[in-house]
Every structure is written in C-alpha cells, then in structure tokens.
Amino acid sequence: MIPACCFLCRLLRPPADALNALLPGGHIICPHFLAARSRLFTSFKAAANGLNCPVARRILALMKPERIPITLQQAVMQRLRDKLQQANLRLERNYPQPALHYKQRGTAAGTAWLQSWEIRLNPVLLLENQQAFIDEVVPHELAHLLVWKHFGRVAPHGKEWKWMMESVLGVPARRTHQFAIASVCSRAFPYRCRCQQHQLSVRRHNRVVRGESQYRCLYCGDPLQPGNFQES
C-alpha cells in the first residue's frame, strides 16, 4: 500500500489521485516533495492552462505563490522600519523589528502574531493596492505588536490601539481596510469571535467541518464560529 504521506509516490498513481494530493487538507510531508515541486509545477501549469476548468485553476493558484517585486518588498520594509523607529523614539523604548512574511491568505490584509513578533501580509492585496496598502496596513499590524508589548493583552482595536495608531505612529486608526476583495474572497471562509472578523483557509474550514480542529482568536481566546462579525 502506498503511504498517504508520500507526495511523490502519490504522483505515480492515476492522475485524479495525484491532483487530490494537491487539494487543501492533503499532507505534503514527504522530503521527496522538495525535489519534485519545481518539475511538477511546470508540468501541471502547462496542463492547467489548456483546460477551462475552475478546479485546475484553483489547484494552480494554491501551488503558485504570488511574487512580490523586490522594489515593493523594499518599500514595505522601509515603511516598517520608519514607523518602528518613530514608535521607539516616542515611547522611549527599543523594540526589535518584527519578522515580515507574505503568507497571509483570504480577505485579511494582514495579521500580527504576538508571541512570534511577526507580521504576515496578504501578497494579493499588496500587489493590487500597493501604496495604500503600505501606508495603512503596515502600521496597522505594527501597532498591534507595539500595543501588546506596551500594554499587555488588551482589546485588539481598543483605545490603546487607537492611541498607538494616531498619537504614536501618526496614522488614521481604521479597524478594517477598504480594498476590493473579489480576487481573494473565494479563497477563504468568514468566521467570527466576540471581538473581530476572521478568515479561515479552505483547509482549515474543512477541518472545522469534519470536527478535526477548533480555532480560537489570538486576542480574546474565543472559539471561532462561522459567519460575519457584527460590531455591537
């Protein structure tokens, strides 16, 4: 019997099974995958481009990460450094620069990961809204990290965050972005907690539906429930 964990071996099975290995929820943990990934993507891209098939396009989108031009990455990093320096001077602190990754999915423009001191940005929305994204989203997520360091665990968009945005970083305190989301909304499912809106990937949504996982808000700790958040 072919091990389910071996991605490369699964490619030796019929094409339908090979495609299933790429669907959200498939476990790609075999080390053979690293050697086969580039060759596989090239072959599948050629096949998918010749098909008028939404499933094929979906798999292709999952396989191919959005490429951020180096000049755009530099602009994002410069904005982050400038605002962090501004905050450190204003707060008389020496907070370190957070890690920056372009792996946020769904309709969220970005997320702040407190414990790992990390900011994740949505590459699709960045490419579509470049300057506005840099001006608004980068300080928005940085403010979440700074509030956590400065005040501890408080409401994600409470008075502390608003003060950090407006008085320290000098940026309007908008809770949500206004970017068009047509290109990303099909990739995520809306979930809510008591304090904010969340977006779960197809993989995580399927795990919830199957009863395999439960996800909680990083801020309030509530389990996430399907649906849209309504501010009281």
TrEMBL record:
Residue ranges of every copy of the SprT-like domain listed in the record: 78-227
Active site, UniProt feature: E141
Entry keyword set: Cytoplasm, Metal-binding, Zinc
InterPro entries reported for this sequence: SprT-like_domain, Uncharacterised_SprT
Binding site for Zn(2+): H140, H144
Origin: domain of life: Bacteria
Cofactor note: Binds 1 zinc ion.
GO BP terms, alphabetized: response to stress
One cellular component term from this protein's GO annotations in UniProt: cytoplasm
Compartments, record wording: Cytoplasm
Cofactor(s) annotated in UniProt: Zn(2+)
Molecular function terms from GO: zinc ion binding
HAMAP family recorded: SprT
Entry's family note: Belongs to the SprT family.
The protein's name in its UniProt record: Protein SprT
Organism taxonomic ancestry: Bacteria, Pseudomonadati, Pseudomonadota, Gammaproteobacteria, Enterobacterales
Gene of this entry: sprT
